[in-house]
């Protein structure tokens, strides 16, 4: 069998440049937001799965309240599966699209129980990350963000990289991913730019600092480019800043 063709030299150079940029952004933003960043909770993986499904396109405060309402109402998640869908929907009414999320959560939990034999996902810890993510994403309604969140945010503490909308926006504006790359496909691209041997905490830090930067500086509308710690690494920010200055000068962050 003939060997697989090597990547063209220009692709290797591009990949190296993006990796160097990704690492530079990581170092810079870690200095701004303070790594290591503490994990925000320590849920079992099935609870994290439910929490992640609730959080889609929803503010953390609202999805957090919905999750607490479910926990207060049901003694265990098997009881949630057996509950009338209308009751589940009423309990999570504060999230976006509760009429879709209530039946989806029940369907996902049924699929987990059918495939695993119970609502215990602890066995994922024994799998390689890629295999664990594939197991989760084989369930309808579970995508890359949810699978990464279950592995990274839960008590499993596995080295998976979630990408939310804020993280994605910063990655696009800094040029780590192209302007047409959606959130789902961005997971594999952004993970490949980071060292393969990074542990769970470091990957979690990477997600958190990019997310925080999107929330606190790189806003969806009117990003604060003038005070951005990675302006010199961001072609979008430089273009915006230059357009606003009559002399065309761009102040680069040291």
From TrEMBL:
Ranges where the HhH-GPD domain occurs: 54-216
Cofactor: [4Fe-4S] cluster
GO molecular-function terms, A-Z: hydrolase activity, acting on glycosyl bonds; iron-sulfur cluster binding; metal ion binding
One GO BP: base-excision repair
InterPro entries, alphabetized: DNA_glycosylase, Endouclease-III_FeS-bd_BS, HhH-GPD_domain, HhH_base_excis_C
Pfam families: HhH-GPD (PF00730)
Family: Belongs to the Nth/MutY family.
Protein name: Fe-S cluster assembly protein HesB
Species, as recorded: Methylobacterium aquaticum
Lineage: Bacteria, Pseudomonadati, Pseudomonadota, Alphaproteobacteria, Hyphomicrobiales
